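Lab notebook, page 48
Experiment: co-folding of the full assembly
Goal: obtain a model of how the components sit together before planning crosslinking
Operator: M.T.
Materials (sequences as entered):
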Amino acid sequence: MGEGLRLYGYWRSSAAYRVRIALNLKGLDYVTVPVHLARDGGEQHAADFRELNPQAQVPVLRDGHRVIRQSLAIIEYLDETHPDPPLLPASARERARVRALALAVACDIHPLNNLRVVQYLQAQFPAFAEQRDAWMRHWMALGFAGVEALLAEHPSTGEFCDGDSPGLADCVLIPQVYNARRFALDMAPYPTIVRIDAACRALAPFEAALPENQPDATPG
Amino acid sequence: MGEGLRLYGYWRSSAAYRVRIALNLKGLDYVTVPVHLARDGGEQHAADFRELNPQAQVPVLRDGHRVIRQSLAIIEYLDETHPDPPLLPASARERARVRALALAVACDIHPLNNLRVVQYLQAQFPAFAEQRDAWMRHWMALGFAGVEALLAEHPSTGEFCDGDSPGLADCVLIPQVYNARRFALDMAPYPTIVRIDAACRALAPFEAALPENQPDATPG
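Observation: model returned without errors.
Model output:
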């Protein structure tokens, strides 16, 4: 496999999008290995990919012979192996705040909006087809309301989720805002999130990580 | 509020159960503050609790004047502020593996089995009542299959998820196995998980953290 970083992902996977932002913020070169989540019943279920990740999910990062799974674990790994610039603050208290913001999206919104969950509900409940967008927006709205309150009330919030440099929480939040826009969620109740999203999207590492800027993107 | 650790939780919340295990493994004294998730429409929605956590979720840890949210962020915080015994291994590679195991449960199983999700589906789809247990077991089986493969194939797996001391991944896995038993999931396909669960349950820190051993437990 050789040395260097290889990111197995899918252009529209928001978990892969998180890792792309982190890699770009660190200024790390990496090779994109597309795994098409819909084609042929999903390439993530193919035997050779399952050998890399028995969970049959993207993203997976290869660092030489090392295989790292789960987007938040990958970002923490990148932060430990390439500390500059840091994606987590220095103090335990502040690190906990940033991780809690990231987990509020990664555990409390994204898993419910995941393709496999939507597919399961559609298969079980024919009526779900009409309610799919309401389902997506329900969990995004609930999650964003919590995140907005955590950001708006806190002195550590700056131009970004934590101070004036982008970090772990921004890596996770911005892909979720991207999804929210796809599903036409009204973002007016979340002015701090909207402001931070705009600040992030103005930066090259976020721009380069956009789904439509990936080699496997097939918009439309 | 005074000094010391206060854990806001609910006896049957598996996210609170994770934190109880971590506190006990560290040998830390703490005060339990019960938040009843079902009584009076859910005490987590009360104004005074929302002030502590605008996400209206348990657990929340108070450490003196500090408020820490999200179970995985709380456990990482405890590991940083009370390093002995460590709940994460020393190397970046091994830390990533342990975090990925924890996230495989915390992101890919637990959010789908959460009470609020079940309540939403029951409200939207009357047919869901009959399918609730199948829904719970579906996501647990899928998630455990991935976790089993990650554990069974790996030389770092020991008596516990990582080597021969319990750590972060065990804190997250064992509450999920407890839930699986409640929903009568067939555990035969996951022999490594079953073995690690038995090793953990034999230890006093896990025993003391059991839902039925909490002051607010109302079994039956």
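Interpretation: Chain A has a mean pLDDT of 95.
Next step: discuss with group before ordering constructs.
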